[in-house]
């Protein structure tokens, strides 16, 4: 079985770990660590482990990776577009989220702080437990630091000036963006020291063999990413090199194996959120207090699903389709990542959900000539469509390919442009693209920046990275780049300064005295 379901009296803990044993139902009844009996809960090793499992659980609900967070990360990029009939979703990519309507972005904000609160409970209570296994205690605390850092990373990255809770309290004052990033970096630093390289080798204890928990590599990768987002290229470079030097990660041969449920937690996965159709109940975790009927499934597939197979709220852009055709493979073929990324009317045919694309859409010219998302779709013929809302495909938050390309970027930014070729080519080799050092030798630092932008655009399309890249590279402040984006993606026509961040939810402003709204809203 992929998960053990831990049922608390009033809290159903959503696990993001893969467990390999089964237990009796009676063993699963525990005191809720989030109610008034909290002090009596934190008593032993098992309680500590269940507490950190609750912190993982906030990754699986609607505000985070069940649906909302991928939408918030994807829709502002020039690789995606939305014609959703739901205004809250439609407006995300048009930089027009409504302060009076917190749908989607407000749910994400709430869930990030739920995860931070749960992580803080672990960090507050577990040190006082006289645990039998001190190594386990250290790993649990390391995971709590990692998870707090991850939730806060999202909060700062999407909302800019936010509270930075590092202890349990009733109110948390709003902090500056710099203060938020400083805490993110500190949490990932601490986690990187405390976490193991793997839970399958050299580990004994309650968490032994549990694939999916945060590792040293995950903490170092996110530490590097936090540094990179703050243009601290030297520290970012060193963190990414530390991940590479662990010698535990490698790219999978088949690019598409990163987006299905067939090869999860593979050698390329640095950290991923664990979804499963077999775990828990059949209800979706929309938000609020978890219920016993909640499953561990994702609504991403139906939200991004092709017409007649899902809601088609997110689609690839023509700019993305065209850029895949700018360079052919060594054998003269189209970049194979195109077919792994989107469905389209491919010459020679393309199958989706057991149907031939051209045949299925043949009577509707608009759909026949449209583009639909393929990443994270259950579309290989096992399911007729996504209308049960229950995808079990794990969300890959950090891939080793990302580490390699971010490392190449830091080499370029620290004056080692020639060395960047090696790590870029490692990613290109998987899809049989020509040797960049031969096709584009001796690039300048600026030329290499542009090349890395192109490489990242195609490698990580529809994975929530593109807009983060656009913003951190300063393209929104560059008139030429902004005009280029507008020509590629009509949604940029409504961008205005400040709208690169989401608004602070009004409920937060009302309930947390002294909180200021973000500029531009």
Can you walk me through this structure?
The termini are far apart. Helix 9 packs across helix 15 (400-413). The strands form six sheets. Strands 1-2 form a two-stranded antiparallel ribbon. The protein is globular and about 65 Å long. Helix content is 41%, strand content 6%. Mean pLDDT is 92; it is low at 1-31. The chain has helices spanning 38-41, 45-57, 68-74, 87-90, 105-125, 134-159, 177-194, 216-229, 233-245, 300-304, 318-323, 337-341, 357-360, 365-368, 400-413, 417-430, 436-439, 445-459, 466-472, 479-488, 506-511; strands at 6-7, 12-13, 80-81, 269-273, 276-280, 295-296, 315-316, 342-343, 351-352, 355-356, 372-373, 395-399. It is mainly alpha-helical and 521 residues long. It has a domain at 397-494.
Helix content, binned percent: 40-55%
Number of helices: 21
Termini Cα gap: 47 Å
pLDDT averaged over residues: 92
Number of β-strand runs? 12
Give the overall shape. Answer: globular
**How are the strands of the largest sheet arranged?**
1-2
Instruction: Please compute the radius of gyration using only Cα atoms.
Output: 22 Å
Uncertain regions spanning at least 5 consecutive residues? 1-31
Structural class: mainly alpha
Main beta-sheet annotation: 2 strands, antiparallel
Estimated share of beta-strand residues: 5-15%
